[in-house]
Design goal:
The chain has 116 residues and is mostly beta strands. It has no helices and eleven strands. The strands form two sheets. Strands 2, 4, 5, 6, 9, 10 and 11 form a seven-stranded mixed β-sheet that branches. A four-stranded antiparallel β-sheet has the order 1-3-8-7, with no helix packed on it.
């Protein structure tokens, strides 16, 4: 089982930025995909941004495209999510998730709150 640990959440004002980081217990280069998901209060978990490792392609939800950016640091074996122009509707628990040999793994999540 892959261990994923998120960091970087917190409270930010509307229009602000945060950077989330996800560290993995296995080499991310081995994964099929790794990405960020979120669950807002009373809502289902949704995909935010995903990195397809083999091919190095990315995909974003329509709600964050142009504001969020997913990237990988091979030296640190981490995946980051740069979030700009945050809005109150971005408030959620953000999870790092991976797929490796058809097995899904999840981190514990980190809270992001956007409020003035």
């Amino acid at each position: 089982q892959v261990q994923l640990v998120e960091s970087g959440g917190g409270l930010v004002q509307p229009g602000g930025s945060l950077r989330l980081s996800c560290s993995a217990s296995e080499n991310i280069s081995k994964f099929d995909a790794v990405g960020w998901y979120r669950r807002a209060p009373g809502k289902a978990r949704e995909m935010v941004a995903v990195l397809i490792v083999n091919g190095d392609s990315t995909d974003y939800s329509d709600s964050v495209r142009g504001r969020f950016s997913i990237s990988r640091d091979m030296a640190k074996n981490t995946v980051s999510l740069q979030m700009n122009n945050l809005q109150p509707e971005d408030t959620a628990v953000y999870y790092c998730g991976s797929v490796w040999y058809s097995t899904h793994s999840w981190g514990q999540g980190t809270q992001v709150t956007v409020a003035s």
